[in-house]
Amino acid sequence: MKKARIDRHVRLSRHCVLGLVLLLAGHTTSYGQQAIATPNAAVKSSLTATTVAPIDSMTFDFNRDIAQQLIPFDEIYKLALAYSPSVKFEGAVSNSQMAAFQLSKLQVLQNVTGFANYSTGNQAILSTGTNASDQLGQISNGYRAGVNVAFSVHDLFGRPQQVRLARANYEATKERRRIAEIQLKRDLFNMYQDLLLAQKILQIRLRDDQASLAAYRIGEVELQKGKITPETHAFNSNRYAETKSTVEQAKTQFIKNIYALELFVGVPIYQLKRS
């Protein structure tokens, strides 16, 4: 009887120990799954907060291509052409040279003058003759009109050169305005491409940032379990800090390019957004 009672206690103890082992194993497994799942949730929430939320309160979706959100490049160039100070300046200079060219062609008219007058009264002129009713005594009375034309040697030989010079200056200012328009289009195209490149770099940096964040969070869990050394975890932390700083730099460069485009075109940024 005593031996049977001891065997029963032994079997009961074995069942209790087995139950405790299974309970601890289940608790460890659930803790590990929860610890590993937490970084994924953090990564997902961080990705949503970073990539979906507009940067600097601008109405751009940075997950989409910025070229699809802006108006076409030709329309941007037309706006820049209308508001560019350099193109406006060259246009004003061209108009002034055109006026000077037209004036040089009409300047010859200053040598032509006309006159008209009227006189009456006893204005007999001194004349010789025996006839008292000489008609020469009356030529100073009544209307008189006429034209005076005078040409100098300079007008005959120098004026064509002046007209040619004025025409050349006018043509030069027109070409200089075209040069300003070409330079404007080149600079605008480079700035537009820099903006597209900045967005692509930002998207690449964001993906790298999320991968580094996931590795950092998983490393924290493995460090608590003793699977990795503190040096390895410090490397993961340093890697995450570097990727985070590069993300901020790429984000700043992207915003700079947007506002540089706004200032270069000369209109608010919302006018460049496709409706």
Automatic annotation (TrEMBL):
Keywords in alphabetical order: Cell outer membrane, Membrane, Transmembrane, Transmembrane beta strand
GO cellular component: cell outer membrane; efflux pump complex
Endpoints of the signal sequence: none
PANTHER family tied to this protein: OUTER MEMBRANE PROTEIN TOLC
Subcellular location: Cell outer membrane
Membrane among keywords: yes
GO molecular function: efflux transmembrane transporter activity; porin activity
Main location: membrane
Name listed for the protein in its UniProt record: TolC family protein
